[in-house]
Write a structure and sequence with these properties.
This protein has 319 residues and is an alpha/beta fold. The chain has one domain: 3-Layer(aba) Sandwich (Rossmann fold). 19% of the residues lie in helices and 21% in strands. It contains 7 helices and 10 strands. The longest helix is centred in the C-terminal third of the chain and has 13 residues. The two termini are 37 Å apart.
């Protein structure tokens, strides 16, 4: 899918990495070379997680503190980029947002480019999983991850639980965000058994996998550009670089809300934004679709950061 943000500087110039070396080791870890950051898939694999992870990267850590975490899923070595919540009192639990990058994107890119970092000062830790070859296996799409049958469902579900090894996380305040190809994977995750989530956001994605009946969704926000050239509003469009025609927004939402037992759609328009509202979904959740006029596929084009943050904050922060 089309990248939603252009990175104008390397992430290492903004947030230095703290790798998973054990704090009790005799040797002091050397500072990373910030002039030549290495990709997530080129970093050395640590022998074990830190003995006292919260003392190494946790609540109250400096704004630049971060960690690249190695995770074994099946027979694959995977990685995610973890940024802690800031300003929490000792022992206070953070909320967690797992963010899935777009197709041909990267964890580094979205950590800088999506503009979600402000959530950290609201008590939300951010985790950015890295797709294989910049792609996700969303079912019938996309790229090398789909061609190889990579278990991205298992990987993201593992990340949702694994962050608790490094930070105190409230299991009742976890959420998922997916953009473009990441939105496709988000739908696949939601249609299968997954760790408990309080909310999910997808931006310019589509359902490209089977979605079984009996689905129980968290509160879900879907944001789409009216003039998106990749994900059509009412009809599918062939995307040449993906060699497929992703489902339309209408088809995706009809399938997901139907399987979740939601009540029929209610429509309204507010500040020029067309909203499709579904209440009474199984388990008491709601689904909201926002159609942004004159907007395309880009993250900034649809105001992804502002819309996602406004939806997530009341669900992830304590009253």
């Amino acid at each position: 899918m089309v990248a939603g943000a252009t990175v104008v500087a390397c992430l290492a110039a903004v947030v230095p990495f703290a790798l998973s070396a054990t704090p009790d080791a005799a040797a002091v870890p050397q500072a990373p070379d910030r002039t030549a950051p290495r990709p997530l898939d080129a970093l050395p694999v640590p022998a074990s997680p830190p003995a006292r992870p919260n003392g190494f990267i946790g609540p109250g850590s400096p704004a630049g503190d971060s960690r690249i975490v190695d995770l074994r899923v099946g027979d694959e070595d995977r990685r995610y980029f973890l940024l802690p919540a800031l300003g929490l009192a000792p022992g206070e639990q953070a909320a967690l947002l797992v963010v899935l990058h777009q197709d041909v994107g990267s964890a580094r890119e979205v950590a800088v480019g999506l503009g979600m970092d402000g959530l950290r000062r609201q008590g939300v830790a951010l985790a950015y999983p890295a797709g294989v070859g910049g792609s996700w296996n969303a079912g019938s799409c996309c790229g090398v991850a789909q061609q190889r049958g990579v278990d991205d469902v298992g990987f993201v579900n593992a990340v949702l639980d694994d962050v608790g090894r490094y930070l105190p996380v409230d299991p009742d305040r976890r959420a998922l965000l997916g953009y473009s190809g990441g939105g496709m994977l988000a739908y696949r995750l939601l249609c299968l058994p997954h760790p408990r989530l309080v909310a999910a956001v997808e931006v310019n994605g589509s359902l490209e996998a089977h979605c079984a009946n009996g689905l129980q969704l968290p509160d879900l926000l879907a944001v789409h550009g009216e003039k998106d050239g990749s994900i059509g509003l009412t009809t599918s469009r062939f995307v040449s670089h993906l060699k497929t025609s992703p489902r339309s927004v209408q088809s995706t939402v009809w399938t997901v809300t139907g399987q979740a037992g939601c009540r029929p759609r209610h429509e309204e328009t507010s500040n020029g934004i067309e909203r499709w509202l579904y209440a009474g979904c199984r388990g008491g959740s709601t689904v909201e679709v926002q159609v942004v006029p004159d907007a395309g596929h880009g993250w900034a084009d649809v105001g992804g950061a502002a819309r996602a943050s406004a939806f997530l904050l009341p669900r992830l922060t304590r009253p």
